Amino acid sequence: MIYVTGERLRPYQVRAAVFDTRWRGVDPVQVHAYLDRVADELDRLHRELATAVTDAERIRQALRQWQSRHNTCRPNSRHLQ
Predict the structure, then answer these.
(1) Using an 8 Å Cβ cutoff, are 28 and 21 in contact?
(2) Does residue 40 sit within a domain?
(3) 47: CB partners within 8 A, 6+ apart
């Protein structure tokens, strides 16, 4: 069953997933091995996202500093013609 929520899926949630067993159902060992792979991938993606957010903030700060240093610069009127 798929649950749609506003929260992002976390690796620990995938690892803790429990499924009902049915007659002639899926192999629980295979299911948990697959869930471990999915959880590892989610973990990697969350780390990459955190790095990207940090990098984006660093770039925003650098742009603000650059803009502050150059806010008094005016283009030469000769170059505008």
Answers:
(1) yes
(2) yes
(3) none
Strands, E assignment, 1-81: none
Q: What are phi and psi of 23, to 5 degrees?
A: -60, 130
Per-residue pLDDT of the chain (81 residues; tens, 9 = 90+): 444 456 777 888 888 888 877 777 888 888 888 899 999 999 999 999 999 999 999 999 999 999 999 888 877 656 555
- Which residue is associated with the tokens 């948990």? 32
- In eight-state DSSP terms, residue 8 is P
The answer to whether residue 59 sits within a structural domain is yes
Q: Hey, what are 66's tokens?
A: 């650059």
Q: Is residue 44 part of a domain?
A: yes
